[in-house]
Specification:
The complex is a heterodimer of chains A (282) and B (573). Chain A has 282 residues and is mainly α. Chain A is built from 12 helices and 2 strands. Chain A has a single domain, classed as Orthogonal Bundle (ABC transporter involved in vitamin B12 uptake, BtuC), CATH 1.10.3470. Chain A is globular. The chains are: A mainly alpha (282), B alpha/beta (573).
Chain lengths: 282, 573
């Protein structure tokens, strides 16, 4: 049995990585739930963002300041993807395949520019750590948690309390009817798609600050983030964050108590249990 | 055409089997091995997922189960390689059936949910293999396992093994496609509830398709273990396996038995052509571009246009089909006896202790205001819902315990108030399905012949090859009727066949129902159009708030004050 401090420390790191699951899940959940597009390219985009941050930071930029360049570009890319899906009225399942094609393209671009070797961003932020009681809180991970909570809550409040958010939910419910009531369905969908892609850019920053980057890593996040989105609820901005943190925490505890390699078993057993329980209710 | 398909598969198999004797460079054999290997995986995936619409992302797990079975048996336990292949099939099939037994039993686990559950199973299987002695994290090296000398060189041996398996997979996919199993799976794809009510044993069919699919993937895994000779968890259970397989099938066309094979060959060739040279990375990107273009411009796949009925309108000259033979003379007596039947939906009592008898040969009208429980009664008798309490006895058999497809087979058919045709099947196939799965259990040709009778009878003979979407409401209502009749039911439940029709269409439909009655069918007729009820029924039962409030001859019952009150409201003095 590991010491209480060790357990606390791993629980904390589990929560931080869970926040990243939630942050990656946010954009995925929004386009999936509200636009019926399963956008696999979200992961590739997040990694592209991470690499851009890495590149600009290596050229002397402050890593956080790179968002000023990355976010507008990604917004445009997201809107463009949606335009493509809408133009060809791609079915939800085919959207998965098209976005897989996009993933392969982005992966090739990353590999072409930065090679298949792993890259690690050296920034001043990585060294900053806060000490709370017996536990250490690294700045990059704290930043991830803060950004994830802020964005998820922000989107939640936006969907719930603003005119735009209400219109968005009406579009998700029934796009033709919403359009008949004067909602500009196309503009809203483009906006949402763009925002989701921008969120991938934010997740990319967090990836770059805390993780070693390699093109093949794109695929290793898909399973667990899908799990967080499914458990948290499609189209729900806060659910995936809560589910992500729960998964991250339970994985971390499993790692601390058994071997690190057993961690995925927890999240996927959890996913199956939740899906079965939910399907039974319907 | 149908016979020659088997012939073509055999010819292709023999022609390709000659290749190793021409002594091509080993490289070509290995490339073709990969083509066959992907053909097996894609075709096996399609047998469940393409046909029935249950898109599985678990193919990596089933393939991996076979791969590690061979790796363990041949690598650690010194079992001869070829003997491990049946075991690989069995282990993969058992894993699949285990998953299916849970997942197919639970509610409506379709679409993305099914895809994700199967994906999660893949990760769990990977984790178990990684952390136990099966792999242990280091991978399994099969370099020392002797390869049987089936052919002159190892590459020829793998070539022949994979070719044999690919031919078998394509042949099985075609056989299932044309058999009853395939028809049932396509019906499940479009509307599983309706398929079950029309007699398709949906659970058993899904399990059968899953079992075959997994067994084929398992053998492919077993052979591939030897081919790569060093197996690791990361490569085996990667998400890229199911994604590639899905992509190949969609690329080729999931509704055609040959689609996945075409897609597999095309994509394997494409990947090779683009990534073999000096520009591998740019080639990968090009593959991505091609995939996107194909999905956008051919969403139904390369063979999509050959697999679905044409969306054509306009009548065609129809050959005359003899009138349906008269039914067996019905003896007098009670056909259906309902006692104390109750059903509630989240506290709303839809049916409350209903007693009802249907006599052989009669038309029983079931009337009552909206929400009085008429449709619920039909849904219970046809097995669409389960009752809370009470008994339903049909020719002495208790229906409450029977699954819906068994109820259909015992001779009960129904129509849906809002027509629910199988959208991707032609009108003819729609009507043939219940004939195939109904009481008489006809084969496909017999069922289509039977279906043509009923299309003629309902005036749809000219639309036999159309998709249901091309029909108007009136014709779709008649399609419902033809489907119900095609199973030759002893008891026909008609749920508002007249709603939404124009007065002249109603007249035509009344004539048709009268013709059905003249053949001696027993009919329960739920209807709001009182003119039709008065003209057609021998007896009516009036429901209100889930209770029977009156019963008797139509003319007499409709004058009773409590019936008038239920319809028009009570006069307050």
């Amino acid at each position: 049995m590991p010491s209480l401090t060790l357990l606390g420390q791993s629980l904390l790191s589990g929560i931080f990585i869970g926040a990243l699951y939630g942050l990656l899940g946010l954009g995925l959940s929004l386009t999936w739930g509200l636009l019926r597009q399963i956008n696999l390219a979200h992961f590739a985009l997040a990694f592209l963002g991470a690499y851009l941050t890495y590149q600009l930071a290596s050229a002397g930029w402050d890593p956080i300041a790179t968002l000023a360049l990355v976010l507008p570009c990604f917004f445009a890319f997201g809107a463009m993807t949606h335009w493509l899906f809408a133009r060809f009225s791609v079915s939800p399942f085919n959207s998965l395949l098209v976005s897989f094609g996009l993933t392969v393209i982005v992966e090739s671009i990353i590999q072409g520019i930065w090679t298949a070797d792993s890259r690690r961003l050296d920034s001043a932020y990585a060294a900053i750590r806060y000490k709370i009681g017996a536990l250490y809180v690294p700045f990059p991970e704290l930043l991830t948690l803060v950004l994830a909570v802020a964005l998820c809550m922000g989107v939640w409040a936006g969907l719930r309390y603003t005119e735009l958010g209400r219109a968005m939910r009406a579009v998700a419910e029934d796009a033709p009817i919403a359009a008949a009531f004067g909602v500009n369905e196309r503009a809203l969908s483009l906006l949402l798609s763009g925002l989701s892609a921008a969120f991938a850019g934010v997740a990319g920053l967090c990836l770059a600050l805390s993780f070693t980057l390699a093109p093949s890593q794109i695929y290793s996040w898909i399973g667990v983030v899908f799990a967080a989105v499914m458990i948290g609820g499609l189209g729900n901005p806060v659910g995936p964050l809560i589910a992500g943190i729960a998964i991250g925490a339970s994985e971390a505890i499993t790692m601390a108590l058994t071997a690190p390699t057993w961690a995925p078993l927890v999240s996927f057993s959890l996913l199956i249990a939740v899906l079965l329980a939910r399907a039974k209710k319907i | 055409m149908r016979v020659s398909a088997t012939g073509w598969i055999a010819v292709a198999g023999i022609a390709l089997a000659v290749v190793p004797f021409l002594r091509p460079p080993a490289f070509y054999e290995s490339f073709l091995y990969l083509v066959f290997y992907w053909i097996v995986l894609a075709t096996s995936w399609n047998i469940l997922s393409g046909y029935s619409g249950y898109f599985s992302f678990g193919h990596g797990a089933f393939f991996g189960a076979g791969l590690y079975t061979t790796a363990t048996l041949a690598g650690a336990l010194d079992v001869p390689f070829l003997w491990t292949l049946p075991a690989a099939a069995a282990v993969a099939a058992l894993l699949g059936l285990g998953v299916g037994a849970v997942v197919f039993r639970v509610g409506r686990l379709r679409g993305e949910l099914f895809a994700l559950i199967t994906l999660a199973v893949t990760f769990i299987a990977a984790n178990v293999v990684l952390n136990t002695r099966i792999d242990g994290g280091q991978g399994v090296n099969l370099g020392g396992v002797p390869l049987p000398k089936l052919m002159s060189s190892p590459s020829s041996t793998f070539y022949i093994l994979a070719l044999g398996l690919a031919i078998a997979a394509v042949w099985i996919a075609r056989a299932i496609h044309d058999a009853k199993l395939g028809r049932g799976l396509f019906a499940i794809h479009d509307d599983e509830d309706v398929a079950e009510v029309m007699g398709v044993p949906t659970f058993r069919y899904k399990m059968a398709a899953l079992g075959v699919s997994c067994a084929l993937a398992g053998v492919a895994g077993g052979i591939h273990a030897m081919f790569i000779s060093y197996v690791t968890v990361g490569e085996t259970f990667s998400i890229l396996v199911p994604l590639t397989v899905v992509l190949m099938s969609v690329f080729g066309g999931t509704r055609h038995w040959l689609g996945p094979a075409i897609g597999a060959a095309a994509i394997t060739g494409l990947v090779y052509a683009f990534t073999a040279g000096d520009y591998a990375i740019a080639g990968r990107a090009a593959v991505g571009v091609v995939l996107i273009a194909v999905i956008l411009f051919m969403p139904d796949g390369i063979l999509g246009r050959f697999a679905s009925p044409k969306k054509r309108s306009g009548a065609r000259a129809s050959t005359a089909y003899p009138a349906p033979p008269p039914r067996r003379a019905q003896q007098a007596g009670t056909l259906l006896e309902v006692e104390g039947l109750s059903k509630s939906f989240k506290g709303l009592q839809a049916l409350d202790a209903v007693d009802l008898e249907v006599e052989r040969g009669e038309i029983l009208g079931l009337v009552g205001p909206n929400g009085s429980g008429k449709s619920t009664l039909i849904n219970l008798v046809s097995g669409h819902y389960r009752s809370d309490s009470g008994s339903m006895s049909f020719e002495g058999r208790d229906l409450a315990l029977l699954e819906a497809h068994r109820i259909a087979r015992s001779g009960i058919a129904r129509t849906y108030q809002i027509p629910r045709p199988f959208a991707h099947l032609s009108v003819l196939e729609n009507v043939a399905l219940p004939a195939m799965f109904g009481r008489d259990n006809l084969d496909r040709a017999g069922a289509e012949h039977e279906a043509r009778h009923w299309l003629e009878f309902t005036g749809l003979a000219g639309r036999a090859e159309d998709v249901p979407d091309a029909l108007n409401l009136h014709q779709r209502k008649f399609l419902e009727l033809a489907r119900a009749l095609a199973s030759r039911p002893k008891l026909l439940l008609l749920d508002e066949v007249l709603s939404g029709l124009t007065p002249s269409e109603i007249d035509g439909t009344i004539r048709t129902i009268r013709a059905i009655r003249d053949q001696g069918a027993t009919i329960v007729f739920v209807e709001h159009v009182m003119r039709a009820v008065m003209e057609l029924t021998d007896r009516i039962v009036v429901l209100n708030n889930g209770r029977v409030i009156a019963e008797g001859s139509p003319a007499e019952v409709m004058r009773r004050p409590e019936v008038v009150g239920a319809y028009l409201g009570k006069a307050h003095a």
